[in-house]
Design goal:
7 strands; 10 helices; Rossmann fold; 217 residues; alpha/beta
């Protein structure tokens, strides 16, 4: 059998982070709108493309520094840095695909940003009175179409076996597009409903152990 080129495509909030930092920011700075719209996004009655834009663009730009400070304090899920080392030693790319804001990811990762092969998500324009959302990856009902990112990345370097890691609604389409999926929380429930197989995890220690035994076997 020839060499199989693997790459890992991971969500950020609630996956790499131990808490849903993006949801926490929305609930803090747009509490009323979050209470109304977030449940609708979770039950799939409101598209991510519409819901996230409505929420973020209801927040005044003056709050942006506070939002960055908030996400910087978010703890990472156990075993993440060790998993990066595990992949680096084997030449397997690790790409972050967030349904949130790339600047929030960078603020949370700090020096670890240099160890990932790409960060894809939406961006915020803070030049006006209200935040303005921009995404190069909008497609269908999604603000950040993770399958579109996956397709784009695969044009940059060869990927025969894309592996998805996620935890919630923003990861569903990516999970459905990948042959190997690690899932927890809401994403696991969505996949159960669709009869799709996946590996369950609680942290990156679980993922590394299963990756070693099943994906590299």
């Amino acid at each position: 059998m020839g060499i199989v080129n693997r790459a890992v495509f991971s969500d950020f909030d609630g996956t790499i982070t131990a808490q849903e930092s993006f949801v926490r920011v929305l609930e803090t700075f747009a509490p009323e709108a979050s209470g109304l719209l977030i449940p609708k996004m979770y039950d799939l009655s409101l598209s991510l493309r519409e819901g996230v834009r409505l929420l973020l663009e209801s927040i005044e730009s003056r709050h942006y520094p506070e939002m960055l400070d908030s996400v910087r304090r978010t703890p990472l899920r156990p075993g993440f840095e060790e998993f990066l080392s595990f992949l680096e030693a084997r030449g397997i790319p690790f790409v972050i695909v967030t349904g949130g804001i790339t600047a929030f990811v960078r603020a949370t990762l700090g020096p670890l940003e240099k160890r990932v092969n790409g960060i894809y998500g939406a961006d915020l324009d803070t030049g006006g009175r209200m935040l303005k959302l921009h995404s190069d990856w909008e497609a269908g009902s999604e603000l950040v179409s993770k399958p579109l990112v996956l397709e784009t990345v695969r044009k940059t370097f060869p990927v025969d076996l894309p592996v998805a890691i996620g935890d919630s609604v923003t990861d569903l389409e990516m999970a459905l597009a990948c042959p190997v999926v690690f899932a927890r929380d809401r994403l696991a429930g969505y996949l159960d409903q669709r009869g799709r197989s996946y590996y369950r995890y609680e942290d990156f220690v679980d993922i590394r152990r299963t990756f070693q035994k099943e994906i590299l076997a």
